[in-house]
């Protein structure tokens, strides 16, 4: 008692550290991946006759200790009508290493995807510029061909005109109508020039329109191919991601008041299970994605594209089509900033928290 009286805070702190370490060690060994009632773990802990009594620590009750574990991030805690439930948070070096490697792989995949998207975008720009530049060579070649035909036609007409002039030389000189013959020849040339000019103009119009249509069709075809590639790469059978608001649709949780309630996805476990923090009660649940639904915000709200070609992009909701169960969104930031998707399924977008 004399030692305790000299430094009570240090003694209490030491017992508190021992109690916490023993409690968490029991959680790590026996309930590492389980959500379990705090009273069950405490009863298992006090079965050891060498355990540290709670009345020697700075926590007066088990509830205070459980809240402390939740505040410090050592356990996930949840208050229910049946009492406090806790889930151990594994902070071992091996687990941290695996999580670090997983995040690294995700970043590498994102970098590869962005690089591929830039290459595809570059190909689209090259195709667009080549389709525009190809208009002039085509029209020039057509103009050259037309000019050659016009020269040949003019030469042929000239020969006919001169032949007629020589055959009727005597009549022309005798009648004094030489000027009429030359004027008729000029009329023939003028008519041919008019016809040739009209043909050239028509050919140019056809060439320009034809090249424009073919260029646009090639560009549209390339963009469709890009969409197919992205859709095939990013269409998965899982869609959960952190930071979105989902609706719980679980009949098993209906008796606890969680069915048809909304929550925020705080963590994704093994791609298919989400840790959901409920918006009203602030409880944390683990729910499979099959028992969750996406939430559509009001017009103008932000959404995350959770599946399909543009998976992982943030977008703004522009409108909805209730008959076709699809929405119109505009992607914000990233590689596809400003791109508008006119018909994306409800299940492929979800409201951001």
UniProtKB/TrEMBL annotation:
Lineage: Eukaryota, Viridiplantae, Streptophyta, Embryophyta, Tracheophyta
Cited InterPro entries: DNA/RNA-bd_Kin17_WH-like_dom, KIN17-like, KIN17_WH-like_sf, KN17_SH3, KOW_KIN17, Rib_uL2_dom2
Single GO MF descriptor: zinc ion binding
GO CC terms: nucleus
Keywords carried by this UniProt record: Coiled coil, Metal-binding, Nucleus, Zinc, Zinc-finger
GO biological process, one term: DNA damage response
Protein name: KIN17-like protein
Domain of life: Eukaryota
Stretches assigned to the DNA/RNA-binding protein Kin17 WH-like domain: 1-125
Region of interest: Disordered: 193-218
Similarity comment text for this entry: Belongs to the KIN17 family.
